[in-house]
Amino acid sequence: MPRQYTMSDKARAARSKGGKAAQTLDAYITRIVDRAPELTDAQIARLRTLLRPVSGGSAE
Predict the structure, then answer these.
(1) 59: Cβ–Cβ under 8 A, 6 or more apart, which residues?
(2) pLDDT tens across 12-53, in order?
(3) Distance between CA 18 and CA 12 in Å, rounded?
(4) All structural domains of the chain with their residue ranges
(5) What's the pLDDT band for 2 if we cut at 50, 70, 90?
(6) CA nearest 33: which of 45, 20, 19, 44?
(7) What is d(CA 43, CA 60) in angstroms, rounded to the nearest whole number?
(8) How far is it, in rounded angstroms, from Cα 10 to Cα 41?
């Protein structure tokens, strides 16, 4: 009979935390920046619209 695989609660929590960290906004941005040379012109245009200055924002 095969042995059942078990994980400790500590290991399960560490794995869950690592998975959540990979899905943060900072993680996504880092991946985009790292792959910037691969971006198409259409993708660059989409990102450019997000980075335009917005008038009336808190930065003014």
Answers:
(1) 53
(2) 777 777 677 778 889 899 999 999 999 999 999 999 998 888
(3) 10
(4) 21-51
(5) low
(6) 44
(7) 28
(8) 45
